[in-house]
From TrEMBL:
Organism, scientific name: Flammeovirga agarivorans
Pfam families: PKD_4 (PF18911)
Family matches, as CDD domains: PKD
Signal peptide: 1-24
Coiled coil: none
Name under which the protein is recorded: PKD domain-containing protein
Signal is among the record's keywords: yes
Stored PROSITE patterns: PKD (PS50093), PROKAR_LIPOPROTEIN (PS51257)
Amino acid sequence: MKQNIYSIFSLVILFWMASCTEKAPSLGPNPTSDDVSFTAVPTSENANIYEFTNTTPNSIAYWSFGTGASGKGETVTAEYAVQGDYDVTLLVVTADGQAEATKTITIESTDFTLLDREDYNLLTGGADSINGKSWVFDKMTLGHMGVGPGPTFADGETFEPTWWQGGPLAKEGLGMYDDVLNFNLNGFKFNLENNGDTYAKSYMADWFTSRGGSIIQDSDDHTYAITFEDQSDWTWSISDRDGKKYLTFSGDAFPGWHVGGSQEYEVITLNEDELYLRTVGENTDEAWYFGFVREGFERPIIEKPYQSEDIFDNFAGNTNVSFVADGALSFVTGVSNFDFNDNDAESVGRYVRTDAAGEDGWIQNYQTELPYRIDLTERHVFKMKVYLMPSNDYTTVTPAGETAGWLNADTPLATTVALRLESSEHGEAWRSRAEVAHTIGSDQLGHWVELTFDYSSVMTDGNFNWAWDAPAIGNDFYDKVIIQIGGEGHTRPGTFYISDFRLEE
């Protein structure tokens, strides 16, 4: 839309320049609803499918069909499966501004053939399911709640819940895990059975109190005592746009956890047993994630064995694990070793941090997930050789405004090497992780250095009580090994080499 407006303005400016007059161009008056016109005609094939045509001169047309669906273009069609009145709005953009107009169309009868859609049937159970279909939070699965960068971020198109993923029962007792969401094809009704309390973001306080709710817990956002007695205007709709599906709620309806913002939720996953949604909340910097399962569905539990095994990688082909690069990290194995002092390996690994912005630049680690949980009780010492290039710039900082939010400080490339052990099943991995880090002195730059990572005295928050009173070697949930060089949260580049990584006997 902006591109077209800019093009029109450019033509106006060029005309002014060509006229060689000193009088500045003037735009016409802003259009009003009286200037907007369109036709609405049922198609000859089906009276429940309408064709809409924009008849407003010199304009770009954006449509809202009154069903939650929308479109763009001079001529568009929309389906109306259920009888009733629908308000169709056309928004036009012209060289002088924008305006909109609305018409009401009346659908005389329900066309059940238009209701027999795969997405409708999966969500509601279909026409034969008189009581609709119920969904509950997938509370035992990592990521059933989550938050990540929203569309106002430069890298917003890489939507993922990278900032936080709720682990199993992450919000137990806060009013959401007993909620039941019911979708019914009859009248596109939506019902929320919240059992008297609802979990919401704290900035939704005015919304809840204006509807008779009261705060009963103010711990990590709010839980409100509230009952939604009248849900008569709570409905749902599914629309398709740009190759994606969107689930939209009307009235005061929301899917059990209220984060404000739009009532439109992108459908990431919808099948017989799973419903995974994403929406932009009150703050457009943030995207929120919701994971549900069909009521009564139980996921099969696949337990990783807890065992002690050899772990090794020379980064030249001899390995029993599979490391992968995070974010914008560039890692190459089998690079020729150029310094045989203190390391006689012919080939090593090259670890290159790039200057990528945002999330991809902040987190540039080299990690592997194991098919088992590491038993550290007897074997808890890792070793690795590292070579930090003295030519790297360890002084220039990434300004605070470009670093990760948890830093919020000017941050240079660090001369640190960290080895982290984490659990793939814990959404707040930073709490339960075990980490040993070394700072390489200036006299060690440009030399191979063998580092020892001993976890025998490392304490963690493995008890999840914020006390960091759980010995790492007593935790039985580590299945990820992460190598981090140069620090995190900044976008400063650097080149490093690593070799001979191993868990000691």
